[in-house]
Amino acid sequence: MIAQLQEYVRRAYRSALGRPRNELVTPALILDLDVARRNIQFMTERLRSLKARLRPHIKVQKSPELARLQVEAGAIGVCTATVWEAMVMSRSGIEDVLIANQVGGREKINALAEAAKHGHLSVAVDDVRNAGELSDAVQAAGSQLDVLIEVDVGMGRGGVRSPDEAVTLAQRLSQFSGLRFRGVQGYEGHCMLEPDRTVRIAKAHAAMDYLGVVIDRLAEAGFACEVVSAGGTGTYDITGNNPRVTEIQAGSYVFMDNFHGNLVPGFSRALTVLGTVVIQHGNTIVLDSGRKSVGIDFVLPTIVDYPFYQARYFAEEHALFDVDERCQLKLGDTVELIPGYAPTTVNLYDAYHVVENGVVVDIWPIIPRGPGHVGILRD
User: Fold this and answer.
1) What is the domain partition of the chain in residue ranges?
2) From CA 75, how far away is CA 69, in angstroms rounded?
């Protein structure tokens, strides 16, 4: 099923192969492979001086091809946000996949249990009822799951809310067949939004100090944490140097959108969206790449060649920029935008136009996108 989906997407976009990057049908998602490889290599080199290993979060890229490049560069596996992403990664040859999230709903739990027969899968839990459902499913499927207890380290989203809750859940997990306790997950996502690095460091340290308290309480109760998973692109070099953390979940570093690019240095922009000037009135140009084509979360997209222009407005299908005499764009010209936020850009597309030396050399399908891919189980 994966191979069929990949072939279908590649056929649909094959006319783009060999074209210059500025001559594509727009809007088009462009991946500069040379830059992405440099970002992957830079992260690999940085991690040599840190204590944690890398488990990149592929909710950003949704690409088996990119995941394989990251694993080949030293990543220990990948993590995902959904069971569908995990299934695609596992069936694409990634041997160690963590769903860094809770999986709920009968069909998704059953799909996870079935997929665990074909590869090493782990999942986060924070509720004994959910753990019981997972146990029932893997017993019925004849599979096994590794589990991490998620700890709320300040986000107020998923995770147990106290060390005592963590111990109680670990005790109950030990009673469930088919589930193996491996450790904890403590994602300090609330720190990623902090633009002041000094404040971000302090917040990340506080979050990991609290996670350490939970780890100690678990150890006292007889539950050693072999795995401590945390961190993201905005804190990879902070959390990644914590002696207790064994792996970090940075993912956006491979693309570096405008939001993440303002947080950590050393990475370059590898992901852009090509748009066309479809309207021009006076000093206003309008591109055919609005909110349905490029992620505007947290920070607005910018024009690669004209980063000093701030968008006036992003409508569903239009991006409006007020320009001046510095702008040489005219009606019909194409121009690339750097997404404000890559994760909510990639999910809008079926494929990457993979570019090397300014020319499209391949089409990489974006296939782990939804419950329709449960059909993979029938491979």
Assistant:
1) 2-31+266-370, 33-255
2) 9
